[in-house]
Design a protein that fits this description.
By secondary structure, the chain is an alpha+beta fold. The chain has five helices and twelve strands. It has helices at about 80-90, 140-145, 165-175, 185-190, 190-200, and strands spanning about 1-5, 10-15, 40-45, 55-65, 65-70, 75-80, 100-105, 110-120, 125-130, 135, 155-165, 175-180. The strands form two sheets. Strands 3, 4, 5, 6, 7, 8, 9, 10, 11 and 12 form a ten-stranded mixed β-sheet that branches.
Length: about 210
């Protein structure tokens, strides 16, 4: 089932139930043994070669033998009142208040919307990432947020970053990315401009 997201002139198609494709147009690489990065922050190294990802911070929500998926948390592209958003979706906005920030999640399927949030909320289309983070692909979470019944902290993203099997590992070996210990403030707060520096300071040192 497909539902439309319309926010500030942006149209996103949300599919209930998450899909784990790799990035289109990329050749799948052999998958080496590795530690899953799900729940970790992927931070662009200072020498990142791809300009789309320069100074980005990505929350990895899935990483297994089929590849990896993550959403960028420090590229805000707008904000929308929840009453307007729900009204355009044809959903009941009675009692709803507040607005939601909209972020660029990544270059893959930019018409697909997700809400990354703290794990104190679970509903239709929610995928648990770690005991601290979850990802929901359902419009109902917007109404819950507007009624004060949603997660403690949340971020709405359009699109995602996807890697084919072995691709993320190869990019790490090349020095494009470092990993960092997740932190609620780095992921969810309003200071998008400072997230990259703070995340880089939290990088993991693997011995």
């Amino acid at each position: 089932m497909r539902q439309a997201w319309i926010a500030g002139g942006l149209l996103a198609v949300l599919v209930v139930g998450l899909v784990m494709p790799g990035a289109p147009g990329r050749v799948a690489l052999a998958q080496p043994a590795h530690r899953s990065l799900a729940g970790q922050l992927l931070v662009a190294a200072p020498g990142m070669r791809d300009p789309r990802f320069a100074r980005t911070v990505i929350a990895i929500v899935r990483h297994d033998a089929t590849g990896a998926m993550g959403v960028t948390v420090n590229r805000r592209i707008g904000e929308a009142p929840l009453t307007d958003l729900l009204g355009r979706l044809g959903l009941d906005s009675a009692g709803v208040s507040g607005s939601i920030r909209i972020h660029w999640g990544g270059p893959v399927e930019g018409g697909r919307g997700f809400v990354l949030h703290t794990a104190d909320y679970a509903g239709d289309g929610t995928m648990a990432v770690t005991p601290r983070f979850a990802l929901t692909a359902s419009t109902e979470i917007l109404r819950s947020i507007g009624l004060g019944q949603g997660p403690r902290r949340a971020l709405f993203v359009l699109g995602y970053a996807g890697w084919a099997p072995g691709q993320l590992e190869a990019e790490q070996e090349r020095g494009d990315w470092v990993t960092a210990v997740p932190d609620d403030d780095v992921v969810f707060d309003d200071n998008d401009a400072g997230k990259w520096e703070r995340a880089l300071a939290r990088r993991r040192i693997d011995l």
